[in-house]
Give the backbone structure.
Amino acid sequence: MKHKLTFLAVIFVLIAGLLPAAMVAQETSGQDYTVQADDWLSKLAEKFYGDPLAYPAIVEATNTKAAEDSSYAVIDNADVIEVGQKLVIPTAQEASTIMGEQVPFLSGDLTIYSGRSESLVGPLIEQFEQESGLNVEVRYGETAGMAATILEEGSNSPADIYYGQDAGALGALAKAGRLAAIPQPLLDQVETRFRSPDGTWIGTSGRARTVVYNTDTLTEADLPDDIFGFCDPAWKGRLGWAPTNGSFQAFVTALRVSEGEERAREWLACIQANEPGVYPKNTPIVEAVGNGEIDAGFVNHYYLFQFLNENPDFPAANYYPRAGGIGTMANVAGAGIVDTVDNPEAAEAFIEFLLRENSQEYFNTETNEYPLTGAIELNPLLTPLSEIQTPDLNLSDLDDLDGTLQMLQELGIL
């Protein structure tokens, strides 16, 4: 006999903390259960956990067991169970854990404007699409360019989510009033320094600025105490930077905020005078360092590890200037919900997905970024932020991207 769920809409609960306290107290061990007449999954979830929306935990636990033991049912359709089928009712704690890792099943479309490259985050977004049931459209481009596009499109923008590689572009959209408020339970998962004060954007992973250098020609002792030391004419023709890259532009914005306009202009002008190699982004800078084309370059920390993963003997290392300062700033990749959002539930689900433990572990081990939520053991390749003399910087102050672009243009760098 078949029974259907009687919900008007099927929206899974994302956050285990929303499950009632009774759920945690009713079960001390999992158990098998044989489906009876007049049973359906939401009814069983309410019986065992006190919450009918917790039924995905039963589905997940049963299907996991069925993969090992054919006597258990395989639940292909959560709307349908049959009398006599053998299910697994996980403990309340197990169910809470499972629900904490679920993506809600939602309908419709979600459009993401991503300033993060497809090679880094494409697999993660594809996983979200598969788990959520949404039709996810992603438009990839430069972080600053994607933000500018949203501003240009105005109220006609199809973007639901802006996913950027730095706080500067996120801040620029927030300053223009183009980002909607993110629910507080999501914001609370990240330290206040890694999210906007007005709750319109949130960091999803962290990175540090660094200087990548060739280990065949240099040691750390050969490198200056801070980034201003690279103004020495001895570095002429030996450096690399990526002026059109969003992370570099965020760094310049931070330089303006922390050191002042004139000091920032002075640094840019002196590095320009040293005739640096100009590259489109971070990856070719690291490649150029490794092949000896240049001796050092200004990048984010994680690009080096892509090369070391392919070749452990790749002759390059990251240097965090010993005197600290803006050359070691910590920034975030993050997301915001665009004010033109058509599917706010889907947008919030995507942000929750980026913050969940599995996704944070992906950033930690696959993209070699710093996880921002949960008690995740840090990738041993990464230098803990506590060991880097990062400057005290409010990331929400990095919203004057236009001022940075104007300075770079005035100096002939762009």
User: Anything to note?
Assistant: Residues 262 and 298 are 20 Å apart (CA to CA). The longest strand covers residues 202-214.
